[in-house]
């Protein structure tokens, strides 16, 4: 699949899927929520977000529908069954990875938000 | 950079022009949301918009990334399978014509050569039809489905009055083609009335029933009409199960399945009680009766059973030319069994089954809902045609006239119909990430079933 690797590198996909597993959102809402929840650590550029969302939709991890909210018709993204199981694998990989990093660095870094 | 400059640069990167509007709209909404947030924080409007545009990053980079997603896709596997099956069909047809003409009489060889020429031409036309249909944007079917449905009915009427001027061979083919092509039109109509609950379902049924009992019978193709009815039942069942007509699915299923079982049931009963004689003409009653008493009555069933006694694993290089008429049209599978044997035939039928299974999966998983229901209806028709053909060819029953085996059997009408159905399947897949069904939705009140709070 010719998806730009730089887009998928890191954990952006996992974070987005995690957000969407809690509730359906539109693009702007995702950036805002991500920023708030990570205390301004993850500032996702919209120019990165939309190609990523569209490629996740193409792969069947997300579906899109339109809904009117406060006078505007917005495209909402919703996670699919495939998306949920993909998120689960990603999370497991992440836990293993961060556990390993913690093991090397020493100390109880893992688990502190 | 100005807003429109940003959007223009971005959309220029997306090579597929059809995909541009829906992508640009979403990005523009995002920029406006961002600008509004800045304005709330006390920024001037122009400054807010400019800042929001800068925040987006490089339009070329984003556009290129979006271009990778939004481009036409070809389902090469289905195309290769369709080509393979058509080639096998052509090979079988040529074999039949060559075996049928053993004499060196010039007259006979001229006829043989012209038949082979026709077979090659039909195959080529079939492929041209697939290519043209595939290139069409199927969404036009969903824009004015009721108008298209009744326009097709007017075409049927026109055909009805003109059929006496058509050559005999074309007359039946035409009727059969039109009956088949009504199916995707009905699928589009169901799509447009979804989300309207029971009323939507009743409207769809009313349009179908009105056409089915007034105009469609004038096509005088029992086989075509039976196939259409089965496909309609399938489309309605799938859409009810998908929740397109709201909750209380069981009641709605009962609503469509009761007449679907009762109507043929009444016809069958009256076929055995012809003294009342109101519902069916005698030949129609006889055809239905023969379904239930085939082993004693039907000549073809007897002949096929007799022939099937002599089949072998690798074929006898013989064809039932004297005992069965028009085998290149109606008994392709029987001929294949006799000439090339069981192994070859099972392999070919396996390819057909694989094609149908693959097409079904793709249609079922298709995210565009109009696309999904249209391509499902095409798969259903191809499946029903194949099954009926197969059953008649292995002597289970033999009742529908003008049948055809997708890709394999001879005939221009067959090539065109299967070309359109396969082309529609491919068109839906090709447009997966390109077309937006939004414009269709906005014409009707629609509430998405996915909404969650």
In words, what does this structure look like?
The complex is a heterodimer of chains A (113) and B (453). With 113 residues, chain A is an alpha+beta fold. Chain A has a single domain (5-103), classed as Arc Repressor Mutant, subunit A. Chain A has 5 helices and 2 strands. In chain A, strand 1 and strand 2 form a beta hairpin. In chain A, helix 2 (12-22) crosses helix 5. Chain B has 453 residues and is mainly alpha-helical. Chain B folds into 2 domains: 1-40 and 60-69, no CATH class; 76-247 and 293-441, no CATH class. Chain B has 20 helices and no strands. In chain B, helix 2 (20-40) packs across helix 3. Chain A binds chain B through residues 2-4, 7, 23-24, 27-28, 45-48, 50-51, 54-55, 57-58, 60, 63-67, 72, 74-75, 78, and chain B through 23, 26-27, 29-31, 33-34, 55-59, 61-62, 65-66, 68-70, 365, 367, 432-433, 438, 441, 448, 450-452.
Would you kindly provide a brief summary of this structure?
The complex is a heterodimer of chains A (113) and B (453). Chain A has helices spanning 5-8, 12-22, 27-37, 46-58, 81-105, and strands at 62-69, 72-79.
- Unreliable stretches of chain A: 1-8
Instruction: State the order of secondary-structure elements of chain B, H for helix, E for strand.
Output: HHHHHHHHHHHHHHHHHHHH
Shape of chain B: globular
Strand content of chain A: 5-15%
The first-to-last residue Cα distance of chain A is 34 Å
Named CATH architecture of chain A: Orthogonal Bundle
Number of E-type strands of chain A: 2
Number of helix segments of chain B?
A: 20
Mean pLDDT of chain B: 84
Oligomer: heterodimer
Structural class determined from secondary elements of chain B: mainly alpha
Largest interface: A-B, 28 and 30 residues
Using brief descriptors, characterize the structure shown:
heterodimer; A: 113 residues; alpha+beta; Arc Repressor Mutant, subunit A; two-stranded antiparallel sheet; 5 helices; 14% strand; globular; disordered N terminus; B: 453 residues; mainly alpha; 2 domains; 0% strand
